[in-house]
Amino acid sequence: MTTFKTAGFAGETLEIIAFRLHDQEFCVKTTTIREIRGWAPSTPIPHSPPDVIGVMNLRGTVIPIIDLAHKLGMKSTEANERSAIVVAEVHNMVVGLVVDRVSDILTIRADQIQPVPEVTTSFDKVYAEGIIAHENGMICFLNLARMFKERDVEEMAA
């Protein structure tokens, strides 16, 4: 088995927050997360990108709410009372990510992160930092900074 030294993570432990989208497990570093909120409806914005559900008021600040499943190329999330909004900071902007539910907060060793296997030549691995083999299954480790390029974040804010 090949271990994967993610840039800047070699020999470290990382705290991650794991969440589910359509029965698949994903995670991000906790350092990017500001808070986790229960589902609340957002206000739609005309002509917004397809992955932007709308905006919501977070203690006086209007933030975009992103359908993370759609952003990842999956079927859009049908939000319900078990859904959550993971509030993250990306490129100095706060965004809300709709997930089916938050699973766990875990501490992992950097050497547990393995590279994403080459699936097809058309598969874009840029969103995934790697894969974590966990006792409850595989967790796809997402890189929010690469998922939301600065230009995209600026467009959401406009």
UniProtKB/TrEMBL annotation:
InterPro entries, per database record: CheW, CheW-like_dom_sf, CheW-lke_dom
Name of a matching Pfam family: CheW
Family annotation (PROSITE patterns): CHEW (PS50851)
Organism: Mycoplana ramosa (Mycoplana bullata)
Protein name, as recorded: Chemotaxis protein CheW
SUPFAM superfamilies in the cross-refs: CheW-like
Database matches in PANTHER family: CHEMOTAXIS PROTEIN CHEW, CHEMOTAXIS SENSOR HISTIDINE KINASE-RELATED
Domain CheW-like positions: 13-153
